[in-house]
Structures are given as C-alpha cells and as structure tokens.
Write a structure and sequence with these properties.
With about 400 residues, this protein is an alpha/beta fold. Helices cover about 35% and strands about 15% of the residues. It is built from 15 helices and twelve strands. It has a ten-stranded mixed sheet. Strands 8-9 form a two-stranded antiparallel sheet. A hairpin with a 4-residue loop joins strand 10 and strand 11.
Length: about 400
C-alpha cells in the first residue's frame, strides 16, 4: 500500500469539503482540501505475485476472478471522472496484473499523479525506464531488513532482497521517487536504525515508511509477531528523531501523529508530522486544527481501496466491502456510504479511543480494530493509551 508524505489536493471547494467530511471549521490552510473527490485510490491490480510474503494482506498467489483489461480501463475512467488526482497501483505485484501498462499509460495521459507499491524484484533497468516514460512518479518498494537472509525468509523467496535493492537503484536512475517501506514486527523492529541508514546512504531513498502490522490475509497466521504498545512507541519515537534530523521517516500507524507531536514539544520544536498520507510542517498557530482536519487513520476519509475484481473497501487492510466500481455509483459511495460516514465521525469511537485526548489527530487504526475485535469502532490495540485493550487481546485472542 502506498503512503506518501505530501498532500494531494482535489478539485472541489472548501464548502464541499466541509459538507462531506463533517468538519465544521476547517483551517484556512485547507481551503483546497476536499473529501468530495478521493485524494488517493489504492488499486490492487492483481493477486498474482512472484513472492510468498508471510504477512500479505491480499493473500497474493490465490486465483480469483479479476476485471478484464477493458473493465479496468472503464474503472479508471470512472475514477478520472470523479476527480481522483492520484492513483496508487498495488497488488499482489502490480506489474503482473493484466492491463497494468494500459492503465498506467491512460492515467498519465489524463494527468494523474501515478504511484505504485512493488516488491521491486521485477524492476530491471528496462522496466524502470518504461515506468518513467509512462508517467510513474513515485514507487514504494518493500525491504524488510538490511539483512538479505531475514528479508528473503519473510518474503518467501531466496534472492528477493538482492533483486529489490537492484530495483530501487534502477528506479532512482530513471528519476522516480522511491520510498523504502518496511513491515515492522517484533522480529525486525530493532533493525530500523540500520535499515534507515542503509536506505538513506546506500540506496539514496527519498523517504522511509514503517508499515503498521495488521492481522489480515496471511498476516493472521503471524499475529504473535505484532508489537506491544511499548515496542511500537519505541519505533515511533525513533522515527520522530529521524524526521526532525532531516530525513523523511514516517509510519502508517496513526499514533505516529501523537508521538511526533509530543516529541516536538519535548525538544521545543515547531510540530512537523509525516503522517499516513501527508506531511504537515506548520509554522502557524493553526497547526492543531490542520492536524485534526486530516485526522490520523485515512481509511474512508483520505483514500479508498480498489480490488482486482472491482470491489471497493475503505482500506486495503480493512476487508469490509462497500460496493463495486463496475456496478455502483463511485461518487455516491464515497459521499454517502454508512460505513464511511462512521469512519469520518470520531465521536462514535469506543473504549479508550473514545475518551482519548488525541482521538481527532489519531483515532487509531480502524483496520486493526476490525481485524482484532470485529468492530471498526473498537480501540486499536497496541497503543500506549489503550493498554487495557492490549491486555484483553493478549488474554482473549492471542492467548499469551
């Protein structure tokens, strides 16, 4: 899944943003932000993949019906007509998806901001050149360790690390922005300092992203790899230090907004938050309202996920279908679907998330809540401010 550290603005007006995002008083800095048109659509192009990753949310490799190339181009036109300015192609391995190059070319012709999430192993020099010529701007490449042995074991194929590193270098050679992403678990979180150093100094990566573990797909088979609240906070604090030292380091964990905010206060710095889909580097007194407007977890608020068969979900990790792009009105789903309305209303949250002072800038990961407790409004276990839910998780679900 793509996570970028820049805010991509839609075409709608602030009045529409207020109406559809339920924000009563948006800050002046957000005059062009809108949830009428989704700023990001993450499109899982296919379940085909050449790796066998332990944590794969899509359970890639299984064979299920997928859209034809013609249907994919029709779906793309629907997104374009809805005003979606950014498309992130994911998978499986997106390059293996039927119609990948046609979708990329058409998206480029329409002026979309084009990104992709890839394991990097198929990015030869020729492929990287072709990606650049077809308008790819941003690539997120998975690399779970500075150690080839760990990465290859986690990704299920020997030699995957070496090919991914080659792929990163090829992408950089052809001028594509590269984010190195690392799915962080108990098994590798202590490797993060070395991983960032390697990504920055050896690979020339533009930024680093620590992916929050979510127990869905094959990830349900390794739930015991999930970090404790204390371990997650240790990771997020280190990322905050790297961020303030000048290297863009972020996390998909919504709690990162809280940790980075608190870290800024501890060193007397102006807040600078690299969140799930944005960077906020504010020098004004409106920082707080800006952050509350964006509000942590982006599922159903900042982006939607599109499946290979056209099904639509709030998030690639949040497997609760809201419709299908081939049979339903995409814009109507985005504006009015009851599940998305709930995700946009933080006052509906339960447990520790309901009473947390940071619920409007964080709100917890709704996918983790749903996958652990079967309730998308439940607390996000693994947060220092939700310790009782973590203890309940250990006792009732993980049986630790």
């Amino acid at each position: 899944m793509i996570c970028i550290t820049k805010l991509l603005l839609g075409k709608a007006t602030v009045s529409e943003a207020i109406k559809y995002s339920k924000v009563e008083k948006p800050p002046a800095e957000m005059l062009h932000f809108s949830t009428k048109a989704t700023p990001i659509v993450v499109w899982n192009m296919t379940r085909k993949c050449n790796l066998k990753c332990k944590h794969c949310y899509a359970s890639a490799g299984i064979t299920l019906p997928e859209m034809s190339v013609e249907e994919r181009l029709r779906a793309l036109k629907t997104l374009i007509d809805a005003g979606v300015p950014m498309l992130a192609l994911s998978g499986g391995e997106p390059i293996l998806g039927p119609g990948f190059w046609e979708v990329l070319k058409m998206g480029h012709e329409y002026g979309l901001y084009l990104a992709m999430a890839t394991n990097g192993t198929l990015i030869t020099d020729d492929v990287a050149e072709r990606l650049a010529k077809n308008g790819l701007i941003y690539a997120q490449v998975s690399l779970d360790s500075p150690s080839p042995e760990f990465h290859d074991e986690f990704r299920g194929v020997k030699g995957a690390w070496e090919k991914a590193v080659r792929g990163i270098k090829n992408l950089k050679k052809h001028g594509i922005m590269v984010e190195v992403s690392m799915t962080v678990t108990k098994r590798n979180y202590r490797m993060i300092p070395q991983m960032i150093k390697f990504a920055r100094e050896e690979l020339g990566a533009d930024l680093f992203m620590a992916f929050n573990f979510v127990p869905t797909g094959r990830g349900r088979e390794i739930v015991d790899w999930d970090m404790s609240p204390e371990e997650r906070w240790e990771v997020l604090k280190y990322l905050s230090q790297e961020l303030y030292n000048g290297f863009p380091s972020a996390s998909t964990a919504p709690q990162y907004a809280v940790v980075a905010y608190e870290y800024a206060a501890s060193i007397g710095a102006k807040p600078k938050i690299a969140g799930h889909f944005y960077t906020i580097d504010m020098r004004s007194d409106r920082f707080g309202s800006m952050l509350e407007f964006l509000g942590g977890c982006g599922a159903g608020r900042v982006y939607l996920a599109l499946e290979p068969n056209g099904d639509i979900y709030p998030c690639v990790f949040f497997r609760k279908k809201i419709g299908n792009i081939l049979t339903d009105d995409f814009e109507a789903l985005w504006r009015h679907h009851p599940l998305l309305e709930e995700l946009r209303n933080r006052d509906l949250l339960k447990g520790e998330c309901a009473t947390c002072e940071y619920k409007y800038i964080c709100g917890g990961c709704r996918a983790r809540a749903y996958n652990y407790f079967g309730d998308h409004l439940a607390p996000d276990p693994g947060c220092l401010y939700a310790k009782s839910s973590w203890d309940r998780l250990l006792k009732e679900i993980l049986r630790a």
